[in-house]
Amino acid sequence: MGSSVEVVELSVAFGRTPVLHRISLSVAAGEFVALLGPSGCGKTTLLRSIAGFVAPAGGRILAGGQDITQAPPERRGAAMVFQSYALWPHMSVAKTIGYGLKLRGWDRVRIDVKVGEMLRLLRLEGLGDRLPAQLSGGQRQRVALGRALAVDPAILLLDEPMSNLDARVREGVRHELRELQQSLGITAIHVTHDREEAMILADRIVILHEGRIAQQGTPEDLWARPASAYVADFLGATNCLPVRVHDEMAEAAPAEPPLRLEPGRAPPNGPANVRFRPEEARVLAPGEPLDGLVFHGVVALSAYPGGRWRASIRIGRDDVLVDVPDRLPEGAPVRLGIPAPAAHVFAATA
Amino acid sequence: MWWLPRGLLLGLFAFFVFGPLVNLVLWSVAESWFWPNRLPSQYGFRFWERVFRPEGQAMESLWLSIWIATLTTLLCLAVSVPAAWALAKANLRWRAAILLLFLLPQAFPNLPVYINIARIFFSFNLNGTVIGVVLVHAAHGLVYSIWIATAAFAAVDDDLELAARNIGAGAFTAFRTITLPLAAPGIAASAVFVFLESLDEFTASYFVGAPEVRTLPLLLFSAAAGGNMQVAAITALILLVPSVLFMLIVERFLRAEVLAKVGK
């Protein structure tokens, strides 16, 4: 069974460079949390602090209610799957998976049984005698996972474990990992820069930005209500157009009706930006009404990435990308509609 | 017509490498070889017999040399394994300076250094003792063993050891089961170098060890100096055996990645 993890005002610095700024985070027992962010945001440092590989400059870390801030890595009950897998080149698959059990004083028969179980669980049967160099990328990843899971850890730490896998293999592994975590009831903290991976795997996503938590919540919640332009951009709302905000109303094209913003989410009066995803905007027929923001522009380019057309539309001095069902002729004037739930408006400076 | 210059070059090269060896072999089986003869006038194994006779000194010297080389190697390993681990992994502040320090004995001309060591050892009664010779060989061998072992440890990714710590291994267990075995080929190579250096070492042995401690190179020197070319040749051939053997071993075990990390 998993145990809870509590990070309290954790600060980490490498030399004089601060990496984490008083981060607080709590993970419930059995929960799957993804730490999401671009490289350099501190997500791996946070994970390695929990594992005990990085000494924090301040703050505390608790596992299952116990303070483990000063505990050495071997006394934390946390097992990590490394990005590089960190498999031991001189040790066979079976020895690698049995390593932690041997340390715990298990006898050989029991170790063999448990290792056999892990090999079956991870679909590595018959590969027990192989060395890491004789395995494929996907097999290595499963061995690394097996080594961590064999010791029945209370906490599983995953450091971008899928970044070295083929896109096709990754797809399947995600679902397997989620299933495994749920059936074992283990607490999992997963570091990734892949938005889709985080959304598929996690109960809760924590988005990090320059050593601070930018936002956390369920995947649906973050998707629908990003709290800042940074989060919106990271979650795929890469299009950005200028609007004016006045009394919680956002104005786009002068001839179109303004959009009433959700109370509490509206930025202060003045210039602002609307961010939206290419797949959530659409091109409106002439005169078609929409509860949302409407811009007037011209088709600059159409491309076909597969399944649907992707049009680049020029609005004023900005270009935005929109998914449309049919090819749009270049130079054609269009009305671009962003439905209210898809329009994320933030103050222009943010 | 390209084979002609190529063949000539190869022949010349082979002559440079194998010529002296052929000469050694010839001398070792020459029972009489007088100027101006190009080749010995009489062949035989009389001198081999003499060298390998129980009362002959060669075998005694060989065993003594091997014993000294073994002790030197063990002493160097005892110092270099922990030192190299610290230099490679412990983020020491004076890392580069410490590594350079071990190069110092090589930086000065050998003779004055060894004469001074002999003088210092004299006051400690170490001259003419096996321990004295081992110590002076080790000072020389530590350069190889520390530099190569540091590179070997540096070539082991930190995450490999952390992966072991992570699933319950204490710091020492992780070192013993992961880092040390992975660095072992490099450390073994450094040990071989130290062993060979000690086996062949002449200058320091001469000043610190002679005449009580007669290693094989010292025997070779006195045989050659005394005009006994046959005994000198046979001694040299005996010295060649461990060198060639170990070189073959090193060549198999020392990986290019480890060599690439020397001095980093």
UniProtKB/TrEMBL annotation, chain A:
<keyword id="KW-0813">Transport</keyword>
<dbReference type="GO" id="GO:0015697">
    <property type="term" value="P:quaternary ammonium group transport"/>
</dbReference>
<dbReference type="InterPro" id="IPR003439">
    <property type="entry name" value="ABC_transporter-like_ATP-bd"/>
</dbReference>
<protein>
    <submittedName>
        <fullName>ABC-type Fe3+/spermidine/putrescine transport systems, ATPase components</fullName>
    </submittedName>
</protein>
<feature type="region of interest" description="Disordered">
    <location>
        <begin position="254"/>
        <end position="274"/>
    </location>
</feature>
<keyword id="KW-0547">Nucleotide-binding</keyword>
<dbReference type="GO" id="GO:0005524">
    <property type="term" value="F:ATP binding"/>
</dbReference>
<dbReference type="InterPro" id="IPR050093">
    <property type="entry name" value="ABC_SmlMolc_Importer"/>
</dbReference>
<dbReference type="Pfam" id="PF00005">
    <property type="entry name" value="ABC_tran"/>
</dbReference>
<dbReference type="GO" id="GO:0016887">
    <property type="term" value="F:ATP hydrolysis activity"/>
</dbReference>
<dbReference type="InterPro" id="IPR017871">
    <property type="entry name" value="ABC_transporter-like_CS"/>
</dbReference>
<feature type="domain" description="ABC transporter">
    <location>
        <begin position="5"/>
        <end position="235"/>
    </location>
</feature>
<dbReference type="InterPro" id="IPR027417">
    <property type="entry name" value="P-loop_NTPase"/>
</dbReference>
<keyword id="KW-0067">ATP-binding</keyword>
<dbReference type="InterPro" id="IPR003593">
    <property type="entry name" value="AAA+_ATPase"/>
</dbReference>
<dbReference type="InterPro" id="IPR008995">
    <property type="entry name" value="Mo/tungstate-bd_C_term_dom"/>
</dbReference>
From TrEMBL, chain B:
<dbReference type="InterPro" id="IPR035906">
    <property type="entry name" value="MetI-like_sf"/>
</dbReference>
<feature type="transmembrane region" description="Helical">
    <location>
        <begin position="134"/>
        <end position="156"/>
    </location>
</feature>
<keyword id="KW-0813">Transport</keyword>
<feature type="transmembrane region" description="Helical">
    <location>
        <begin position="177"/>
        <end position="196"/>
    </location>
</feature>
<keyword id="KW-0812">Transmembrane</keyword>
<keyword id="KW-0472">Membrane</keyword>
<dbReference type="GO" id="GO:0055085">
    <property type="term" value="P:transmembrane transport"/>
</dbReference>
<protein>
    <submittedName>
        <fullName>ABC-type spermidine/putrescine transport system, permease component II</fullName>
    </submittedName>
</protein>
<feature type="transmembrane region" description="Helical">
    <location>
        <begin position="7"/>
        <end position="30"/>
    </location>
</feature>
<comment type="similarity">
    <text>Belongs to the binding-protein-dependent transport system permease family.</text>
</comment>
<feature type="transmembrane region" description="Helical">
    <location>
        <begin position="216"/>
        <end position="249"/>
    </location>
</feature>
<dbReference type="InterPro" id="IPR000515">
    <property type="entry name" value="MetI-like"/>
</dbReference>
<feature type="transmembrane region" description="Helical">
    <location>
        <begin position="99"/>
        <end position="122"/>
    </location>
</feature>
<dbReference type="GO" id="GO:0005886">
    <property type="term" value="C:plasma membrane"/>
</dbReference>
<feature type="domain" description="ABC transmembrane type-1">
    <location>
        <begin position="62"/>
        <end position="250"/>
    </location>
</feature>
<feature type="transmembrane region" description="Helical">
    <location>
        <begin position="62"/>
        <end position="87"/>
    </location>
</feature>
<keyword id="KW-1133">Transmembrane helix</keyword>
<keyword id="KW-1003">Cell membrane</keyword>
<dbReference type="Pfam" id="PF00528">
    <property type="entry name" value="BPD_transp_1"/>
</dbReference>
<keyword id="KW-0997">Cell inner membrane</keyword>
